[in-house]
Design brief:
heterodimer, A: alpha+beta, Beta-Lactamase, Helix Hairpins, 4 domains, six-stranded antiparallel sheet, five-stranded mixed sheet, 17 helices, about 50% helix, elongated, B: 5 strands, about 40% helix, about 20% strand
């Protein structure tokens, strides 16, 4: 018989951790610490080693004596020991899980802190995706973020994090392991460094899902407000689109919802390691998604705020500029006028002196120089005043029927004089429009004046309004004058075009500009039976 | 001999017009204020009015134009102003002509002649 108990007992151990050097005593009976370089507390030794050691079992049985009761005791002892061992293992497992959970929560806390430290949208998205793939937390290989576009009609891929393939993954993960960079260091990169891997980002940008695609797993996740663990995506009608783009058949998808407003989804997969995605990963991802959604919402609101601020600043600048220009315009106008009146008298007198004096009188040449120089100055002043003349319309809410009536009243003496009959039919039930009270009347006044000119020996001026689609008032003004030839009718609104004796050709061109400024349209056509008909269309309020 | 009423608050302009139109064979009456203009307009047989308009819309020039038009529908009225801006104020279109003041009186004189011959 050998002196080595583990050989005697064939306990499959190469060396007994419990042996006493040179002896064959059981470790259990040797409770000295430091034995064989190991120290385990008595209880630990019992659970871990002795419980499965056949020698130990022998000792117990041998020591139980010969009575049936003795065996009962030894059996019970062994069973109890077994029970306690299992319990011990269970506790150890729970302990490990708890530690892991605490670590996860700590890391989630890290991510949350990182998210709270920025309001920049791009930075926020990068933190989120880094959080999903970071080794310490979810350990997923790749993460993709899909958000609603501005129209809210599509879900589009905006950003992704993850390696291109196994080689790059091994390299990056090895680098990460050896580096001392914390999560915050990884996530809080400067803007130009967070563009990430071009390949995964290109994949992300290929993703576009219509919100009407109810079968799509992303749309379903959003509408049902729950995450999905997709396996065998290639065979699923609602997921095969993603499977084709991402080249993966198992992935997880979590809706992002902040204060009841759906923002998009977070997708992640283990395309490199092919490790299964567990239900526990999904739970953690769901908790994470809540934080993520709030962060995205805040960043988006901040972005909106910044844009509004920028617009506000721009309009403020414009306003200041416009005010400056307006006051410069006023000064120029006043100055030009103040200078013009004396120039008119100086030049006027010089001109009359030139005319009243016979030729070849002393100073005649000098007088002519003075006269032409004054004309030059007047031309400069005219240009200045012309420039100050152009004004943007000041639109106010007003009744267009009243405007037309006012113009008719103003010209009533002339209508009566020329025996022109007026027929006004205001058929449009609505007549409130945005108008410039100085500019718009010019249009009607001008058309009425033309009508008076066209009917020197009487006729009919008819005004008729009606409502037209989508929401316009149409004003038709027709006269029974000689009308205008079809060649001329197309050119009637061109500046400087006139068929009227003594007309400037400015009136209708100006009218068209005014109507355009009122977001309306004006056209002219021959009136059946002679005369001309103008049709003006302006949006109603 | 036709009578022209010149309404202008600038004395030098009144003198210039009086001198020039008189030399051209017209009888010229001048008015420096709107009240004066109304008085002269009612008192005399005026054949044509040359009316100055000032910068502010409230100086009464446009009201004067309306008043004259209502009092005498047929009388030719020429607006003669340093401001081209009034051209786009439709009230001014009640006048028969709109001439921007210039040291060269040819345009004004031609218009006066044309309107009196109508």
């Amino acid at each position: 018989m050998s002196t080595k108990c583990w050989e005697d007992r064939n306990c499959q151990q190469k060396e007994c951790p419990v042996r006493r050097r040179g002896g064959k005593h059981c470790w259990l009976s040797e409770p000295r610490p430091g034995f064989d370089g190991q120290y385990l507390p008595f209880r630990e030794r019992l659970y871990r080693h002795c419980r499965s050691c056949s020698y130990f079992h022998d000792i117990i049985e041998r020591g139980a004596g010969r009575r049936a009761d003795d065996h009962l005791i030894s059996d019970t002892l062994l069973k109890l020991l077994d029970e306690m061992g299992s319990f011990h293992e269970e506790v150890a497992r729970s302990n490990r899980a708890l530690t892991e959970n605490i670590q996860n929560l700590a890391m989630l806390n890290e991510v949350t802190k990182a998210l709270q430290s920025t309001l920049d949208l791009k930075q926020t998205l990068h933190i989120i995706l880094t959080g999903v793939t970071a080794a310490e937390i979810l350990r997923l290989n790749r993460a993709f973020l899909l958000l609603f576009d501005d129209s809210r009609k599509n879900l589009v891929g905006v950003m992704a994090v993850g390696p291109t393939g196994p080689e790059e993954a091994t390299k990056i993960w090895a680098e990460l392991k050896s580096s001392s960079a914390s999560f915050k260091d990884l996530a809080m990169r400067p803007h130009h460094e967070i563009d990430g891997n071009e390949y995964v980002n290109r994949l992300a940008r290929e993703i576009k899902v219509s919100v009407d695609d109810y079968d799509n797993v992303a749309i379903r996740a959003i509408s049902l407000r729950k995450p999905f663990l997709v396996s065998d995506a290639h065979a699923s009608p609602g997921a095969k689109g993603f499977a084709a783009v991402l080249k993966v058949s198992n992935f997880v998808i979590v809706p992002l919802i902040a204060e009841n407003e759906p923002l998009g989804v977070l997708m992640a997969d283990n395309s490199i390691t092919q490790a299964p995605i567990e239900q526990s990963d999904l739970t953690l991802l769901e908790i994470f998604a809540g934080q993520v959604a709030s962060a995205i919402r805040n960043a988006k609101l901040y972005q909106q705020l910044q844009m509004n601020m920028k617009e506000l600043r721009q309009s403020q600048d414009k306003l200041i500029k416009a005010e400056k220009m307006a006051s410069i315009g006023e000064i120029a106008t006043t100055l030009a006028h103040e200078m013009r009146t004396p120039l008119v008298s100086i030049g006027g007198f010089i001109n009359s002196m030139i005319k009243q004096q016979p030729d070849n009188r002393p100073f005649e040449k000098q007088f002519r120089i003075i006269s032409s120089e004054i004309e030059r100055l007047e031309a400069v002043l005219s240009d200045t005043l012309e420039m100050a003349r152009f004004k943007e319309p000041e639109l106010v809410k007003a009744d267009i029927n009243i405007i037309i009536d006012d113009c008719l009243k103003l010209l009533l003496p002339e209508f009566e004089d020329k025996k022109i009959e007026i027929k006004a039919l205001y058929n449009c039930p609505e007549h409130q429009i945005w108008l410039d009270k100085l500019q718009l009347p010019q249009v009607f006044f001008n058309i009425f004046k033309n009508a008076i000119h066209a009917m020197p020996s009487g006729g009919l001026l008819q005004i008729e309004t009606q409502k037209t689609e989508p929401n316009n008032i149409e004003i038709k003004i027709s006269d029974t004058g000689p009308g205008i030839s079809s060649d001329h009718i197309d050119r009637i609104f061109e500046p400087r075009f006139t068929t009227k004796n003594g007309g400037s050709g400015i009136g209708l061109a100006l009218s068209k500009k005014i109507i355009t400024n009122h977001r309306g349209a004006i056209k002219a056509e021959p009136r059946p039976g002679g005369g001309i008909a103008f049709t003006i269309s302006i949006p109603l309020i | 001999m036709s009578t022209i009423l010149v309404v202008d608050d600038e004395e030098n302009i009144r003198i210039l017009y009086q001198q020039d139109f008189t030399a051209n064979g017209y009888k010229v009456i001048c008015a420096a204020t709107l009240d004066e203009a109304k008085r002269e307009f009612s008192r005399n047989q005026v054949d044509l009015v040359v009316l100055d308009l000032k910068l502010t819309a409230h100086d009464g020039g446009l009201e004067m134009l309306r008043w004259m038009r209502e009092t005498n529908r047929k009388i030719p009225i020429i607006i003669n102003t340093a401001y081209p801006a009034y051209k786009t104020d439709f009230s001014s279109w009640l006048a028969d002509a709109y001439i921007v003041k210039s040291s060269n009186l040819d345009e004004l004189k031609e218009t006066v002649e044309k309107l009196l011959n109508q």
